[in-house]
Amino acid sequence: MGSKLKNIGLISLGVVAGIAASVQFDAVAQKSAAAPLPLEEVRQLADVFGLIKSDYVEQVDDKKLLSEAIAGMVASLDPHSSYLDKKGYKDLQEMTQGKFVGVGIEIGMEDGYVKVISPIEDSPAYRAGIKAGDLITRIDATPVKGLTLDQAMKRMRGEANTKIKLTVARKDEDKPLIFNIVRQEIRVQSVKAKMVEPGYGWIRITQFQEPTVADMAKKIAAMYAENPNMKGLVLDLRNDPGGVLPGAIGVSAAFLPKDSVVVTTNGQIPSSKMSFTAKPEFYAVAPGQDPLAKLPEALKKIPMVVLINTGSASASEIVAGALQDYKRATIMGTQSFGKGSVQSVIALPPDRKTAVKLTTARYYTPSGRSIQAKGITPDLAVDEYADGDILKNLRIREADLTKHLTNDKDKDAEPAAASKVDEEEEEKKAVALSKKHKPYEYGSKEDFQLTQALNHLKGLPVQLAKAKAKGDVEADNDDKDSNKKDDADDKKDDKTDDKK
């Protein structure tokens, strides 16, 4: 059973330009085509190949031509499938270990341009000032318009300490912005943890890598060693774009009863029809070892809040969905990204140095919910700031990506696109609000959503979001707020009884 797990991985939001994606790999292509090839179309392909070879203005290398044909075929399927050449495949393998060379952004395509989904914390792009929603229009002197995402990605890659110039269009700027960035080897710190208040711990997972489960276990054990009577825990998955499936299973297993179903997957091939449970065989990196074995039993029952936002995708949504289904934690924040598909990275013969990253399944929460193009709806909707979320209606989700998979459980799950007038109004509001707010660090005293999470754990009032974002699923916050206040009153009564 454990060997099957190695055939499936989760890709985060975009293709790699030094982005935070990590996967697991198949050794070889699993099977040949299930049906005979359509001979007429194959002949047509051969005819076009021959025509290019004979009539094109200049000579074209055979391997280059065929590689580009393969890349175009795979890229036409959905936003997360792609062909990986030798360098792309090697880069992706390295990133499962949390290190790679690049600028540090998660990307997608919009109107022919590269769209920044999110800069990775502490990356060169992050420090340079690249923001989510930026459109990259030029890479050095090359216009992006007309390039495929894979081609743009290759141009952004390079050797460590080499320079790259990115020209960016930003919605609230009249002129293009120029960013001169030095590529670096980026080592992403997967897990951060600290005591934010006496008795209350904070664990942030920036992305799911191979070492994530073990790193989280070490940090939790250290917190309990110094604070054996912890009262509450906040698991922060905001802007976590996903990563490897074992990481999501292991993080969920730390807080759920043994053998609980964490996630199921379903696709065409038998190996894609799986049920993954909270067992070491599904999350341990080394066979026979359990990185969670020495964690205190109290961790299974400690009151929890999970923070999510639009940047929480894929593996993050698996964790949030599982803890929500079992009512193990209160999910707080804003609607998540909605990437509910699984990608397998399949090495191609004969040399196995190139690969196809192919969407092979959808995944489902323990109760059978599909998150694809929908996302996780928080139990308590809380804005980024006390006076609102400046980018709430401008952030992109899976449903905004071209050729995204539909939600097979809920055909009406996809949010309606906002009108052009609405977007212009929202942009004006965002610009006005952004001038009032200073950037803050997750886990700091200025972190409004974290403050609300702590309030909830203490039984204090929580300031809920005043308005729903584009595509948010309806949630009866008034009832939930009322229930929360009732719970707080019950706790207060219990304390009074104890004093008596």
From TrEMBL:
InterPro entries: ClpP/crotonase-like_dom_sf, CtpA/B_N, PDZ, PDZ_sf, Peptidase_S41A, Tail-specific_protease. Residues 89-157 form the PDZ domain. Residues 406-427, 464-500 are annotated as: Disordered. The keyword Hydrolase applies. Gene3D superfamilies: 2-enoyl-CoA Hydratase, Chain A, domain 1, 2.30.42.10, 3.30.750.44. Residues 480-500 have a biased composition (Basic and acidic residues). SUPFAM superfamilies: ClpP/crotonase (SSF52096), PDZ domain-like (SSF50156). GO terms for molecular function: endopeptidase activity; serine-type peptidase activity. Keywords: Hydrolase, Protease, Serine protease. One of its GO terms (cellular component) is outer membrane-bounded periplasmic space. GO terms for biological process: proteolysis; signal transduction. The keyword Lipoprotein does not apply. Pfam families: CtpB_N-like, PDZ_2, Peptidase_S41. It comes from the Bacteria. PANTHER family: CARBOXY-TERMINAL PROCESSING PROTEASE CTPA, TAIL-SPECIFIC PROTEASE. NCBIfam families: prc (TIGR00225). Belongs to the peptidase S41A family. This is PDZ domain-containing protein. It comes from Glaciimonas soli.
